Amino acid sequence: MEKIIDEKLQGNTLELEPKAANSRKLFIESYGCQMNFADSEIVASILHKEGFNTTSTLEDADLVLVNTCSIRDKAEQTIRKRLEKYNAVKKINPKMKVGVLGCMAERLKSKFLEEEKIVDLVVGPDAYKDLPNLINEVEEGRNAVNVLLSKDETYGDISPVRLQTNGVSAFVSITRGCDNMCTFCVVPFTRGRERSRDPQSILEEINDLASKGYKEITLLGQNVDSYLWYGGGLKKDFRNASEMQKATATGFADLLKLVAEAQPKMRVRFSTSNPQDMTVDVIEVMARYRNICNYIHLPVQSGSNRILKEMNRLHTREEYFALIDTIRKLIPDCAISQDLITGFPTETEEDHQDTLSLMEYVKYDYGFMFAYSERPGTMAARKLEDDVPEETKSRRLAEIVALQREHSLYRTQQFLGKTVEVLIEKESKKSTLEWSGRTEQNTVAVFPKEHYKVGDFVMVEILDCTSATLKGKAVGMAP
Prior knowledge:
Layout: E1 12-13, E2 24-30, H1 34-48, E3 52-54, E4 63-68, H2 73-92, E5 97-102, H3 103-107, H4 109-115, E6 121-123, H5 131-139, E7 144-146, E8 169-173, E9 175-176, H6 187-191, E10 195-196, H7 199-211, E11 216-220, E12 228-229, H8 243-247, E13 250-251, H9 252-262, E14 267-271, H10 280-288, E15 295-297, H11 305-310, H12 317-330, E16 335-342, H13 349-362, E17 366-371, H14 379-383, H15 390-413, E18 419-427, E19 434-438, E20 444-448, E21 457-465, E22 469-477
Parallel strand pairs: 2-3, 2-4, 4-5, 5-6, 6-7, 8-11, 11-14, 15-16, 16-17, 20-22
Antiparallel strand pairs: 1-2, 9-10, 12-13, 18-19, 18-21, 19-20, 21-22
């Protein structure tokens, strides 16, 4: 659950500039977290070279791929419905092939292929380079599956085609997999062990994005703070590295510094952080470089030490508070957001009150809040009974959401009367006369368009706000 799931993006289809020589059509739809959307860009890149142009019309497709998520039951149910829809279209267009990518592929391979016979192709998150071979297998009439997890695949040598993009901000993957065995989470089983990408390939990708006019990048990983490059290989094998490798290793604070210095005019963000892995040197680097945005997504999951232990979160409530205090001290205007799960097995009313009091202490800018849903294959599903009644989960979630709304409003109100830098990303959803962009704290701001354009850094005076949005007027270009 260390992954932000943006509900607005779910089910987005990707479209690229068509290549005249390409004769086949690919329809690719993505669900889940930002990592999945970034992975879809890699897949489209690989298949673009194999003669596929993208289409957003399902009925036209020769190949339909759905990039899936196993984080919540709701995501899986949605994908099942989509597969039924694809199969209805397949009856009309029998040449069409259907494939499942990503986390659900890894978990439900035999179910999809053998029991339900609803897909031709099942490809796990580390096997995308094998897609051309797998597609050939399918075209020869065989089912194809590759869900092997890799110790070293980082896709560092593939330049992703930017699909979901406004041409202003882009995601850059820096790690794959996760070593944290949180008991509620399927990620270590679906995406494998943690490995980091060569910093050189990261810098090349960022420099390339800058040359194409991008103004902001987000470094992405299941757990960015534990980024560690020592010449390749799994993070857990670092203890066997040579003295030379250890002495010259690049950690996350080093990488942040390299990125900030490589493109000083570009905004730098990162997600997701993990409380147990975030070190003071990362916060110090953030404080030192103006172009690193003062915003940290810092999932806590629960405010109760007992529940944190049951979740196998390797931090306590007190350690989390100490980290928050350090951030506030070194970066006073840093925005912080959360992930929270309510109704985890055995959670009592007292544990729930601990979560509310933690929220009161931090006063998050915003958050991603869920009622616990048991995920098959996780430690929690194997060892703990899902014993909190649904109505209790719903009530606790409503209390958490209401408190978060209060805190979000408190945070946006701090901007009233101030003038802040906003990067224009797109037209406002509510009005064609306004631009929408984000402050460095990741807060959405809208203001009249005037003569400004997408990609401009603009100084905006904040005149009004809701709990989610700042409203203001532009007072000039940012210095």
